[in-house]
Amino acid sequence: MKETDKNDPKKGMSRLLASLPDKPGIYVFRDAAGKPLYVGKAVSLKKRVRSYFGPAGAADERISRMLRRMRDFDFVVAASETEALLLESNFIKHHHPPFNIMLRDDKSYPYVAITWREEFPRVFLTRRPHRRGIDYFGPFTSAGRVRQTLELLGKIFPYRKCHGHRPGRRTGSPCLNYHIGLCLAPCAGRIGAAEYGQLIKRVERLLSGHADSLEADIAGSMGKAASAQRYEEAAFLRNRLLALRHLLEDQQASAAGLDSVDVIGLHCEDDSANIQVLLIRDGLLSDRRSFFLGNVSGEHRDEILEQFIMQYYSQPIGLPAEVVLPSGFRETEALADYLTRAKGSRVDVKRATTRGRRRELGMMAAENAELALKQDILREEEKRARPARALADLKSSLGLKRRPLRIECYDISNTAGGHPAGSMVVFEAGLPRRSHYRKFAVKTAGPDDYAMMAEVISRRFSRSGIGPGEERKTDESFAALPDLILVDGGAGQVSAAAAALETLYLGDVDVAGLAKKREEVYLRGRRGPLILAAGSPGLSLLIAIRNEAHRFAIEFHRQRRDRELSSSILDEIPGIGPSRKRAILVHFGSPERFLAAGRDELEAVPGLPAKVAREAYAIVHKLG
């Protein structure tokens, strides 16, 4: 459906609204360029879309802003409300409309993966997209917690820790993990595929929450080994049992009467909301997840929950057989059908009851959502206020003429004068403006940091369009003058930068240096360093800017060095062309690692023939 009036989307809309069908489906509001602003689901398209142009829509600021930008809308009729949910989910995933609810905690969660397609499956942490032939357990909220779990699992069940599809090293000898009891060495034939598979099945059972019989089995085996005076084996099983008990210590919160359920709580205030998900697994409250949502003003609670569920369960891994929603939620059947399709097996969606364990957990989730939202709001306010507070602190502490709204920081990176690189990073209003970052391939010869700093400052400001420099304004970053110039270094670097500015008639720009060892601040025209209070907002901001400039300079320096090193040394080796050169650098990560590699390591490079690898080793060591 096309809206022809470009000035007011409400004018001439009545005929279009009247033509809307009284059927379920989705509607899409679009801007002047045709891009989706908002995607919504409706049981009745006619009633839902018309509600936006009534008094309720005009009263809500978020809806008013959306309607002011809207120049067109269209819709898709669906066979059922469940079908409409699926369509809405697909449209939102594909278009990311700016006025739809934004789930802020959309980071990739860590999972534990088991590679069942391999003869000797691996167990490892991953954040990669889910692939066929791999079982995933999770998601977990903390990668540290997953690593701790895997460490304990590796003690209980000594599965292989090597990374390849096939176990072991090229030499065929077992690694250190075998000798310290953390691997059964399938690479050396010390355990068969069938027996190893049973071991991994026990790992899978434990990750699935079925730990009931494992503790008794290990305790029984330990007792038998002790009775038979196999004390070394008994000690090994004892360590397994202790690790298992430690792993299960986190799962003591009881949720008796429930099996595997997600309990969801919601709290809204103004344009923000928080949703809590309590994870009940095998009757135990095993985890809690918190999500901050924006863009919720004007949305009904049911719509907020629907959109959250579609985003949260977009990857159905870990989706339980039951989801419990707040007691006032009006529609559960369509959501149940949607989740059932996503999971591939039946998922029940229930409301928190008026009594019993579901009611208690529902109240717990709602209370935690309210408290978490208050914390989220305070955290957001603090985050917004922090840069302004830091700039005010810098103006006062450094005695600057004005608040340093634009700070440019410069650093030099080189190795004994070789491959020198300069960096310029820009922070505006206390936040990085990465589009204004610049790199400088320094031309100054020899290890003279002061001369290199003077060169970079001169080149940058000679292109500002101010002063007698021959070069003139070239881009937006060089055209803007900073309120404060920060250099990585002490009095020498500050003096070099100030002298370069004097030659360009920019002597009134404030210059400061931050020395790494004691985080002392050196100012142009001040004798001796200035010591700012540790942890103060101003010093924290200076350190963050200096570290960013340092990172950026090192990155460019390594790029220059790697290009020259790889082209000079690798080009002298017969049989190594561009593709093999890339393979070597990708395999080792840096030229230094390549130069330090042994012959066996070079022969292990994928795609590099053994003969060429031996020649490369000989030539590199001949060159020293």
Q: Biggest β-sheet, characterized?
A: 7 strands, mixed
CATH class of the largest domain: Alpha Beta
Structural class: alpha+beta
CATH topology-level fold name of the largest domain: Nucleotidyltransferase, domain 5
* Rg over alpha carbons: 32 Å
Task: Give the name of the CATH architecture of the largest domain.
Answer: 2-Layer Sandwich
**Helicity range:** 40-55%
> Could you say how many structural domains there are in total?
5
Strand content of the residues, in percent? 15-25%
Tally of individual helices = 21
Shape summary: globular
How would you characterize this protein structure?
The protein is an alpha+beta fold and 624 residues long. The protein folds into 5 domains: 14-100, GIY-YIG endonuclease (3-Layer(aba) Sandwich), CATH 3.40.1440.10; 111-248, no CATH class; 261-374, Nucleotidyltransferase, domain 5 (2-Layer Sandwich); 406-560, UvrC, RNAse H endonuclease domain (Nucleotidyltransferase, domain 5, 2-Layer Sandwich), CATH 3.30.420.340; 573-623, Orthogonal Bundle (DNA polymerase, domain 1), CATH 1.10.150. Helix content is 43%, strand content 18%. The chain is built from 21 helices and 19 strands. The protein has helices spanning 14-18, 45-51, 55-59, 61-69, 81-95, 143-156, 176-179, 193-207, 214-227, 231-248, 301-312, 333-343, 357-398, 449-461, 476-479, 491-503, 537-569, 578-588, 591-596, 599-603, 610-623; strands spanning 25-30, 36-42, 72-77, 102-103, 111-115, 123-126, 134-137, 261-269, 272-281, 284-294, 322-325, 348-351, 406-415, 418-428, 431-432, 438-441, 484-488, 510-515, 520-523. The strands form 4 sheets. Strands 13, 14, 15, 16, 17, 18 and 19 form a 7-stranded mixed sheet that branches. Helix 16 (491-503) links the parallel strand 17 (484-488) and strand 18 (510-515). Helix 5 packs across helix 11, helix 5 (81-95) crosses helix 12 (333-343) and helix 13 packs across helix 17. The longest helix is centred in the middle third of the chain and has 42 residues, at 357-398. Mean pLDDT is 80; it is low at 1-7, 250-257 and 467-473.
